[in-house]
């Protein structure tokens, strides 16, 4: 590979539709010329073979995509050539977004395994953002547009907009492997710190009930770091249950975690008294609170609340407990995350005792 010249790009120019008011060196490099319909398949092969030059900007025309490669590569249905490429240096997708005039704060991105979940109000520039993510993060193989949580199982409405056409991934968290399908189950990587925080409160030998377990991330983290005697992981979504069971086996925890498919309201009545109950169903936790009261010593409770209404909600929670013959001491009230301008996700520990 040899550098040929240092050439400015005019301030009103764009690269792949992204405004680029910078100067770039032009680099002559081997490349593979690929028909557009085969571009993603070939890109993955080049990445897997450590052949793609990541510091040069991929080129496109009406029919083909031009991938810069480290050496001459012969591939079926593709052509090899020497072409000029713009050297982009080490940039993050944030650099590209800012250059494109897209405000990063208007975008929310979650990385789940090799999948990037993209939430943004202006979907007209979503493809540009997706391409920037693929270009600057070699761990990302798929970019999905996330249109929010919906349906009886509260899963994301997602659409694959760039990269590999898949929605299944294996996410790694605190030494665990968590397999899931982002279109069929709900999982938030943003709760990783919260999961380890709860695990640190669980004493060795404890019994834990995870009422809305999903693919079992809370249960897995607790099983690995707290050494409880038993965890009951409940979920009504059959896809989540399938992945939860697979994750239990994947992480060697079959002797600790029992995954149960069913409505938590009915299931929890049949389970033994727990030292800890996890209620992470933030849109509906309050509805299930009467079923959890009296079934555990400490409830790790999460709810999306109106901002400024926390004290009123705590009074209502304590009222539910009194109706069932219990009193509650609330500890560790905290903001877990923002939900909207008027709402936020709150977490707290409810210490339950008979009156």
Topology:
Layout lengths: L1 E7 L5 E2 L2 E2 L3 E13 L3 H10 L10 E2 L3 E5 L10 E9 L5 H7 L7 E6 L2 E6 L5 H11 L5 E9 L4 E9 L4 E6 L2 E6 L10 H8 L7 E4 L6 H10 L3 E6 L2 H13 L6 E5 L2 H4 L6 E7 L4 H8 L3 E11 L3 H14 L2 E13 L4 E12 L1
Parallel strand pairs: 9-10, 14-15, 14-17, 15-16, 17-18
Antiparallel strand pairs: 1-4, 2-3, 4-6, 4-7, 5-6, 8-9, 10-11, 12-13, 18-20, 19-20
Helix pairs in contact: 2-3, 4-5
Describe this structure in words.
It is a single chain. This protein is an alpha/beta fold and 355 residues long. It has 3 domains: 2-87, Alpha-Beta Plaits (2-Layer Sandwich), CATH 3.30.70; 93-166, 2-Layer Sandwich (GMP Synthetase, Chain A, domain 3), CATH 3.30.300.110; 179-354, Rossmann fold, CATH 3.40.50.150. 24% of the residues lie in helices and 39% in strands. Strands 16-15-14-17-18-20-19 form a 7-stranded mixed β-sheet, with helices on both faces. Residues 1-24 have low confidence and may be disordered.
Main features:
355 residues; alpha/beta; Alpha-Beta Plaits; Rossmann fold; 3 domains; seven-stranded mixed β-sheet; 39% strand
Q: Could you please say which CATH topology of the largest domain applies here?
A: Rossmann fold
Strand content: 35-45%
In the CATH classification, which architecture of the largest domain applies?
Answer: 3-Layer(aba) Sandwich
Number of strands: 20
- The secondary-structure element order is EEEEHEEEHEEHEEEEHEHEHEHEHEHEE
CATH class of the largest domain: Alpha Beta
Beginning-to-end CA distance, first to last residue: 77 Å
Q: Which term fits the overall shape?
A: elongated
CATH superfamily of the largest domain: Vaccinia Virus protein VP39
Percent in helix? 10-25%
Global Rg: 25 Å
Q: Are there runs of 5+ residues with pLDDT below 50, and where?
A: 1-24
Q: How many structural domains are formed by the residues?
A: 3
On the 0 to 100 scale, the average pLDDT is 89
Order of the strands making up the biggest sheet: 16-15-14-17-18-20-19
Structural class, please?
alpha/beta
Largest beta-sheet characterization? 7 strands, mixed
Q: Please, how many helices? A: 9
């Amino acid at each position: 590979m040899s550098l040929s010249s240092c050439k400015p790009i005019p301030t009103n120019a764009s690269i792949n539709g992204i405004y680029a008011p910078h100067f770039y060196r032009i680099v002559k490099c081997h490349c593979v010329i690929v028909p557009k319909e085969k571009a993603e398949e070939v890109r993955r092969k080049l990445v897997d073979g450590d052949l793609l030059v990541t510091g040069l900007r991929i080129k496109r025309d009406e029919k083909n995509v031009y991938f810069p490669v480290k050496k001459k590569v012969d591939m079926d249905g593709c052509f090899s050539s020497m072409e000029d490429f713009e050297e982009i240096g080490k940039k993050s997708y944030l650099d590209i977004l800012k250059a494109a005039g897209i405000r990063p704060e208007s975008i929310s991105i979650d990385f789940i395994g090799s999948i990037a979940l993209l939430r943004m109000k202006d979907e007209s520039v979503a493809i540009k953002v997706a391409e920037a993510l693929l270009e600057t993060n070699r761990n990302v193989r798929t970019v999905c547009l996330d249109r929010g949580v919906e349906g009886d199982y509260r899963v994301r409405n997602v659409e694959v907009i760039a990269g590999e056409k898949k929605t299944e991934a294996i996410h790694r968290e605190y030494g665990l492997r968590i397999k899931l399908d982002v279109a069929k189950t709900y999982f938030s990587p943003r709760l990783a710190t919260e999961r380890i925080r709860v695990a640190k409160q669980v004493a060795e030998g404890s019994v834990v009930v995870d009422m809305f377990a999903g693919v079992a991330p809370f249960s897995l983290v607790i099983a690995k770091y707290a050494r409880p005697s038993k965890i009951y992981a409940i979920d009504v979504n059959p896809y989540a249950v399938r992945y939860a069971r697979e994750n239990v086996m994947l992480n060697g925890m079959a002797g600790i975690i029992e995954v149960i498919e069913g409505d938590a309201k009915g299931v929890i009545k049949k389970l033994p008294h727990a030292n800890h109950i996890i209620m992470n169903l933030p849109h509906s936790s309050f509805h299930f609170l009467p079923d959890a009261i009296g079934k555990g010593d400490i409830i790790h409770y999460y709810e999306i609340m109106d901002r400024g209404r926390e004290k009123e909600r705590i009074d209502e929670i304590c009222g539910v407990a009194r109706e069932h013959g219990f009193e509650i001491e609330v500890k560790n009230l905290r903001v877990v995350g923002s939900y909207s301008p008027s709402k936020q996700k709150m977490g707290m520990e409810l210490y339950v005792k008979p009156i």
